[in-house]
Specification:
Aspartate Aminotransferase, domain 2; about 350 residues; seven-stranded mixed β-sheet; 2 domains; globular
Protein backbone atom coordinates (compact mmCIF):
# COMPACT_ATOMS: atom_id res chain seq x y z
CA UNK A 1 0.00 0.00 0.00
CA UNK A 2 1.35 3.44 -0.89
CA UNK A 3 1.86 5.81 1.99
CA UNK A 4 1.52 9.57 2.12
CA UNK A 5 5.15 10.61 1.72
CA UNK A 6 5.90 14.07 3.17
CA UNK A 7 9.64 13.96 2.34
CA UNK A 8 11.32 17.22 1.36
CA UNK A 9 13.24 15.62 -1.51
CA UNK A 10 13.53 13.24 -3.15
CA UNK A 11 9.81 13.68 -2.82
CA UNK A 12 6.59 11.97 -3.77
CA UNK A 13 5.80 11.73 -7.48
CA UNK A 14 2.36 11.65 -9.11
CA UNK A 15 1.01 8.11 -9.02
CA UNK A 16 -0.16 8.43 -12.62
CA UNK A 17 3.40 9.22 -13.69
CA UNK A 18 4.82 6.25 -11.81
CA UNK A 19 2.21 3.94 -13.26
CA UNK A 20 2.92 5.08 -16.81
CA UNK A 21 6.65 4.65 -16.25
CA UNK A 22 6.02 1.16 -14.90
CA UNK A 23 3.90 0.24 -17.93
CA UNK A 24 6.62 1.49 -20.30
CA UNK A 25 9.61 0.26 -18.34
CA UNK A 26 10.54 -2.62 -20.64
CA UNK A 27 8.98 -1.33 -23.87
CA UNK A 28 9.05 2.42 -24.35
CA UNK A 29 7.35 3.89 -27.39
CA UNK A 30 7.15 0.51 -29.09
CA UNK A 31 10.94 0.19 -29.19
CA UNK A 32 11.11 -3.11 -27.33
CA UNK A 33 13.53 -1.39 -24.94
CA UNK A 34 13.39 0.74 -21.82
CA UNK A 35 13.83 4.47 -22.28
CA UNK A 36 16.97 3.94 -20.18
CA UNK A 37 18.40 1.74 -22.93
CA UNK A 38 17.89 3.91 -26.02
CA UNK A 39 20.49 6.29 -27.40
CA UNK A 40 20.16 9.89 -26.31
CA UNK A 41 21.39 10.77 -29.82
CA UNK A 42 18.58 8.86 -31.53
CA UNK A 43 15.54 10.59 -32.97
CA UNK A 44 13.07 8.99 -30.50
CA UNK A 45 14.84 10.35 -27.41
CA UNK A 46 15.56 13.71 -29.00
CA UNK A 47 11.84 13.95 -29.75
CA UNK A 48 11.08 13.15 -26.10
CA UNK A 49 13.51 15.84 -24.94
CA UNK A 50 12.10 18.46 -27.29
CA UNK A 51 8.55 17.69 -26.19
CA UNK A 52 9.51 17.95 -22.51
CA UNK A 53 11.00 21.37 -23.14
CA UNK A 54 7.95 22.48 -25.13
CA UNK A 55 5.61 21.37 -22.33
CA UNK A 56 7.68 23.14 -19.68
CA UNK A 57 7.73 26.30 -21.77
CA UNK A 58 3.96 26.11 -22.13
CA UNK A 59 3.38 25.55 -18.40
CA UNK A 60 5.57 28.48 -17.37
CA UNK A 61 4.89 30.66 -20.45
CA UNK A 62 8.66 30.92 -20.95
CA UNK A 63 9.47 33.81 -23.32
CA UNK A 64 11.20 33.00 -26.59
CA UNK A 65 14.40 34.79 -25.57
CA UNK A 66 15.12 32.31 -22.78
CA UNK A 67 17.00 29.03 -23.10
CA UNK A 68 15.86 25.97 -21.17
CA UNK A 69 18.60 23.56 -20.10
CA UNK A 70 18.28 20.07 -18.59
CA UNK A 71 21.52 19.51 -16.71
CA UNK A 72 23.18 17.24 -14.18
CA UNK A 73 24.69 17.97 -10.78
CA UNK A 74 21.56 19.11 -9.00
CA UNK A 75 20.88 22.66 -7.89
CA UNK A 76 24.08 22.67 -5.82
CA UNK A 77 26.21 22.55 -8.97
CA UNK A 78 24.54 25.80 -10.01
CA UNK A 79 25.95 27.52 -6.92
CA UNK A 80 29.24 27.35 -8.87
CA UNK A 81 27.96 27.56 -12.43
CA UNK A 82 26.09 30.82 -11.89
CA UNK A 83 29.10 32.94 -10.83
CA UNK A 84 31.28 31.23 -13.45
CA UNK A 85 28.86 32.22 -16.20
CA UNK A 86 27.51 35.55 -14.97
CA UNK A 87 30.32 37.22 -13.02
CA UNK A 88 34.00 38.01 -13.39
CA UNK A 89 36.41 36.70 -10.80
CA UNK A 90 37.14 40.27 -9.67
CA UNK A 91 33.48 41.28 -9.92
CA UNK A 92 30.65 41.98 -7.50
CA UNK A 93 27.48 39.96 -6.86
CA UNK A 94 24.52 40.34 -4.47
CA UNK A 95 22.94 37.64 -2.34
CA UNK A 96 20.03 37.52 0.08
CA UNK A 97 20.44 35.15 3.03
CA UNK A 98 17.20 33.62 4.28
CA UNK A 99 18.41 30.23 5.44
CA UNK A 100 20.36 27.06 4.81
CA UNK A 101 20.27 26.98 1.01
CA UNK A 102 21.00 30.68 0.67
CA UNK A 103 24.04 30.21 2.90
CA UNK A 104 25.33 27.34 0.76
CA UNK A 105 25.00 29.44 -2.39
CA UNK A 106 26.79 32.36 -0.71
CA UNK A 107 29.60 30.11 0.48
CA UNK A 108 30.27 28.83 -3.02
CA UNK A 109 30.08 32.30 -4.56
CA UNK A 110 32.74 33.50 -2.11
CA UNK A 111 35.13 30.95 -3.57
CA UNK A 112 34.62 32.31 -7.07
CA UNK A 113 33.90 36.06 -6.90
CA UNK A 114 35.93 38.78 -5.19
CA UNK A 115 32.99 40.73 -3.73
CA UNK A 116 29.92 38.89 -2.50
CA UNK A 117 27.53 41.43 -1.03
CA UNK A 118 24.96 39.98 1.37
CA UNK A 119 22.42 42.78 1.00
CA UNK A 120 19.97 41.23 3.50
CA UNK A 121 20.44 38.61 6.19
CA UNK A 122 17.56 37.29 8.29
CA UNK A 123 19.76 35.69 10.96
CA UNK A 124 18.27 37.92 13.68
CA UNK A 125 14.91 36.14 13.31
CA UNK A 126 16.63 32.75 13.11
CA UNK A 127 15.56 32.71 9.47
CA UNK A 128 11.84 32.79 10.18
CA UNK A 129 11.30 35.94 8.10
CA UNK A 130 12.20 37.42 4.74
CA UNK A 131 13.41 41.00 4.24
CA UNK A 132 10.90 43.72 3.51
CA UNK A 133 10.50 44.40 -0.20
CA UNK A 134 11.87 47.93 0.10
CA UNK A 135 14.94 46.71 2.03
CA UNK A 136 16.43 44.97 -0.99
CA UNK A 137 18.66 47.44 -2.78
CA UNK A 138 21.00 45.98 -5.40
CA UNK A 139 24.61 47.08 -5.31
CA UNK A 140 25.67 49.34 -8.16
CA UNK A 141 27.62 47.27 -10.67
CA UNK A 142 26.56 43.88 -9.28
CA UNK A 143 26.53 41.14 -11.92
CA UNK A 144 23.35 39.64 -10.46
CA UNK A 145 21.10 39.43 -7.39
CA UNK A 146 20.55 35.90 -6.07
CA UNK A 147 17.79 34.83 -3.71
CA UNK A 148 16.00 31.65 -2.64
CA UNK A 149 12.22 32.13 -3.05
CA UNK A 150 11.47 29.15 -0.77
CA UNK A 151 13.79 27.78 1.89
CA UNK A 152 13.04 24.05 2.02
CA UNK A 153 14.53 23.51 5.47
CA UNK A 154 13.13 26.53 7.28
CA UNK A 155 9.79 26.71 5.51
CA UNK A 156 10.22 30.42 4.66
CA UNK A 157 8.85 31.74 1.37
CA UNK A 158 9.02 35.15 -0.26
CA UNK A 159 5.50 36.55 -0.79
CA UNK A 160 6.88 38.81 -3.52
CA UNK A 161 9.42 38.83 -6.35
CA UNK A 162 12.24 41.28 -5.56
CA UNK A 163 12.69 44.30 -7.82
CA UNK A 164 16.32 44.10 -8.90
CA UNK A 165 16.15 46.95 -11.40
CA UNK A 166 18.70 46.49 -14.17
CA UNK A 167 20.57 43.82 -12.20
CA UNK A 168 19.65 40.29 -13.39
CA UNK A 169 17.56 38.46 -10.80
CA UNK A 170 18.66 34.87 -10.13
CA UNK A 171 16.42 32.47 -8.19
CA UNK A 172 16.89 29.01 -6.71
CA UNK A 173 13.37 27.68 -7.24
CA UNK A 174 14.13 24.06 -6.42
CA UNK A 175 11.26 23.69 -3.96
CA UNK A 176 8.71 26.05 -5.48
CA UNK A 177 8.95 25.82 -9.27
CA UNK A 178 5.72 24.75 -11.01
CA UNK A 179 3.74 25.20 -7.78
CA UNK A 180 1.83 28.21 -9.21
CA UNK A 181 1.98 30.59 -12.19
CA UNK A 182 5.24 32.53 -12.58
CA UNK A 183 6.32 35.57 -14.58
CA UNK A 184 9.60 34.23 -15.96
CA UNK A 185 10.38 37.54 -17.65
CA UNK A 186 11.12 39.10 -14.25
CA UNK A 187 14.16 36.85 -13.87
CA UNK A 188 17.51 36.65 -15.54
CA UNK A 189 17.99 33.03 -14.50
CA UNK A 190 15.92 30.42 -12.68
CA UNK A 191 17.28 27.07 -11.58
CA UNK A 192 15.62 24.14 -9.87
CA UNK A 193 16.63 20.68 -8.76
CA UNK A 194 14.12 18.18 -10.07
CA UNK A 195 13.46 16.07 -6.98
CA UNK A 196 10.58 18.08 -5.55
CA UNK A 197 8.12 19.22 -8.24
CA UNK A 198 9.72 18.05 -11.49
CA UNK A 199 10.79 14.42 -11.17
CA UNK A 200 13.51 12.24 -9.64
CA UNK A 201 16.89 13.36 -8.37
CA UNK A 202 19.73 13.66 -10.85
CA UNK A 203 18.40 16.49 -13.01
CA UNK A 204 18.38 20.28 -12.70
CA UNK A 205 16.45 22.66 -14.93
CA UNK A 206 17.99 26.04 -15.78
CA UNK A 207 15.94 28.75 -17.50
CA UNK A 208 18.27 31.56 -18.55
CA UNK A 209 17.84 34.71 -20.60
CA UNK A 210 19.83 34.52 -23.82
CA UNK A 211 21.83 37.68 -23.26
CA UNK A 212 23.30 36.15 -20.08
CA UNK A 213 24.91 33.19 -21.82
CA UNK A 214 28.10 33.18 -23.80
CA UNK A 215 30.08 35.05 -21.15
CA UNK A 216 31.55 32.20 -19.10
CA UNK A 217 34.95 33.12 -17.71
CA UNK A 218 38.06 31.43 -19.07
CA UNK A 219 38.66 28.04 -17.52
CA UNK A 220 34.98 27.28 -16.88
CA UNK A 221 34.43 23.52 -17.35
CA UNK A 222 32.47 22.86 -20.53
CA UNK A 223 29.68 21.09 -18.62
CA UNK A 224 29.21 24.25 -16.51
CA UNK A 225 29.21 26.58 -19.52
CA UNK A 226 25.60 27.51 -20.29
CA UNK A 227 26.30 28.39 -23.92
CA UNK A 228 28.17 25.16 -24.55
CA UNK A 229 25.27 23.17 -23.12
CA UNK A 230 22.63 25.27 -24.89
CA UNK A 231 24.39 24.85 -28.24
CA UNK A 232 24.24 21.06 -27.80
CA UNK A 233 20.63 20.86 -26.61
CA UNK A 234 21.82 19.95 -23.08
CA UNK A 235 23.54 16.90 -24.59
CA UNK A 236 27.19 17.88 -24.63
CA UNK A 237 27.56 14.67 -22.64
CA UNK A 238 25.14 11.82 -21.94
CA UNK A 239 22.24 13.37 -20.02
CA UNK A 240 20.25 11.73 -17.20
CA UNK A 241 17.84 10.19 -19.68
CA UNK A 242 15.46 8.45 -17.26
CA UNK A 243 15.11 11.56 -15.09
CA UNK A 244 14.45 13.64 -18.21
CA UNK A 245 11.81 11.16 -19.36
CA UNK A 246 10.06 11.25 -15.97
CA UNK A 247 10.21 15.04 -15.92
CA UNK A 248 8.47 15.02 -19.30
CA UNK A 249 5.74 12.77 -17.94
CA UNK A 250 5.33 15.09 -14.95
CA UNK A 251 4.93 18.11 -17.23
CA UNK A 252 2.20 16.27 -19.14
CA UNK A 253 0.54 15.39 -15.82
CA UNK A 254 0.57 19.04 -14.77
CA UNK A 255 -1.03 20.04 -18.05
CA UNK A 256 -3.70 17.36 -17.60
CA UNK A 257 -4.48 18.76 -14.14
CA UNK A 258 -5.35 22.08 -15.74
CA UNK A 259 -2.00 23.85 -15.61
CA UNK A 260 -0.35 25.98 -12.96
CA UNK A 261 -3.34 28.16 -12.14
CA UNK A 262 -5.26 25.07 -11.02
CA UNK A 263 -2.19 23.60 -9.32
CA UNK A 264 -1.56 26.87 -7.49
CA UNK A 265 -5.09 27.04 -6.10
CA UNK A 266 -4.78 23.43 -4.96
CA UNK A 267 -1.45 24.05 -3.27
CA UNK A 268 -2.70 27.15 -1.49
CA UNK A 269 -5.71 25.22 -0.17
CA UNK A 270 -3.51 22.38 1.12
CA UNK A 271 -1.19 24.79 2.91
CA UNK A 272 -4.04 26.77 4.46
CA UNK A 273 -5.65 23.60 5.77
CA UNK A 274 -2.46 22.51 7.51
CA UNK A 275 -1.58 25.93 8.92
CA UNK A 276 -5.11 26.40 10.23
CA UNK A 277 -4.89 23.07 12.04
CA UNK A 278 -1.54 24.05 13.57
CA UNK A 279 -2.62 27.54 14.62
CA UNK A 280 -5.92 26.42 16.14
CA UNK A 281 -4.46 23.53 18.12
CA UNK A 282 -2.64 25.10 21.06
CA UNK A 283 -0.49 21.98 20.85
CA UNK A 284 1.42 22.45 17.57
CA UNK A 285 3.32 25.56 16.50
CA UNK A 286 4.87 26.90 13.32
CA UNK A 287 7.87 29.23 13.86
CA UNK A 288 7.66 31.17 10.60
CA UNK A 289 6.20 34.67 10.33
CA UNK A 290 2.67 34.39 8.98
CA UNK A 291 3.33 36.62 5.96
CA UNK A 292 6.10 34.38 4.63
CA UNK A 293 4.98 30.85 5.36
CA UNK A 294 5.82 28.33 2.67
CA UNK A 295 3.15 26.56 0.65
CA UNK A 296 5.55 23.70 0.03
CA UNK A 297 7.39 22.99 3.31
CA UNK A 298 5.56 23.31 6.61
CA UNK A 299 7.71 22.88 9.75
CA UNK A 300 5.99 22.50 13.10
CA UNK A 301 6.81 21.62 16.68
CA UNK A 302 4.95 19.87 19.46
CA UNK A 303 4.23 21.48 22.82
CA UNK A 304 6.44 18.81 24.42
CA UNK A 305 9.45 17.85 22.31
CA UNK A 306 9.75 14.59 24.25
CA UNK A 307 6.72 13.42 22.28
CA UNK A 308 8.50 13.84 18.92
CA UNK A 309 9.60 10.19 18.55
CA UNK A 310 6.14 9.01 19.61
CA UNK A 311 4.49 11.28 17.06
CA UNK A 312 6.76 10.06 14.29
CA UNK A 313 6.30 6.38 15.17
CA UNK A 314 2.52 6.65 15.33
CA UNK A 315 2.44 8.69 12.11
CA UNK A 316 4.44 6.01 10.27
CA UNK A 317 2.05 3.36 11.56
CA UNK A 318 -0.81 5.46 10.14
CA UNK A 319 0.85 5.60 6.70
CA UNK A 320 2.22 9.15 7.08
CA UNK A 321 5.95 9.04 6.45
CA UNK A 322 9.05 11.26 6.37
CA UNK A 323 7.70 13.90 8.75
CA UNK A 324 10.99 14.38 10.57
CA UNK A 325 12.24 17.95 10.58
CA UNK A 326 15.65 18.61 9.06
CA UNK A 327 18.46 17.54 11.38
CA UNK A 328 19.60 21.16 11.70
CA UNK A 329 16.28 22.40 13.13
CA UNK A 330 14.49 19.35 14.56
CA UNK A 331 10.74 19.11 15.10
CA UNK A 332 8.51 18.06 12.22
CA UNK A 333 8.21 19.10 8.61
CA UNK A 334 5.50 18.25 6.12
CA UNK A 335 6.47 18.86 2.50
CA UNK A 336 3.34 19.13 0.41
CA UNK A 337 4.52 19.51 -3.16
CA UNK A 338 2.34 19.26 -6.26
CA UNK A 339 2.07 15.47 -6.14
CA UNK A 340 0.79 15.41 -2.53
CA UNK A 341 -3.00 15.13 -2.85
CA UNK A 342 -5.41 17.06 -0.66
CA UNK A 343 -6.41 13.71 0.85
CA UNK A 344 -2.87 13.32 2.19
CA UNK A 345 -2.99 16.66 3.99
CA UNK A 346 -6.46 15.84 5.32
CA UNK A 347 -5.13 12.53 6.65
CA UNK A 348 -2.23 14.33 8.35
CA UNK A 349 -4.52 16.91 9.95
CA UNK A 350 -6.83 14.19 11.23
CA UNK A 351 -3.88 12.28 12.68
CA UNK A 352 -2.52 15.42 14.35
CA UNK A 353 -5.88 16.08 15.99
CA UNK A 354 -6.19 12.50 17.18
CA UNK A 355 -2.61 12.52 18.50
CA UNK A 356 -3.31 15.70 20.44
CA UNK A 357 -6.38 14.07 21.90
CA UNK A 358 -4.31 11.17 23.16
CA UNK A 359 -1.26 13.11 24.34
CA UNK A 360 -2.28 16.72 24.77
Amino acid sequence: MRVYNFAAGPATLPVEVLEQARAELTDWDGSGMSVMEVSHRGKPFIGLAEQAEADLRELLAVPANYRVLFLQGGASAQFSAIPLNLAAADGSVDYVNTGAWSKKAIGEARRLVARVNVIADEAASKYTTVPAREALRPTAGAAYLHYTPNETIGGVEFPYVPDSGSVPLVADMSSTILSRPLDVARFGLIYAGAQKNIGPAGLVVVIVREDLIGHARAGTPALYDYKAMADEGSMLNTPPTFAWYLAGLTFKWLKAQGGLKVIGARNEAKAQLLYQAIDASGFYANPVAVNCRSWMNVPFTLADARLDPVFLAEARAAGLTNLEGHRSVGGMRASIYNAMPLAGVQALVQFMQEFQGRHG
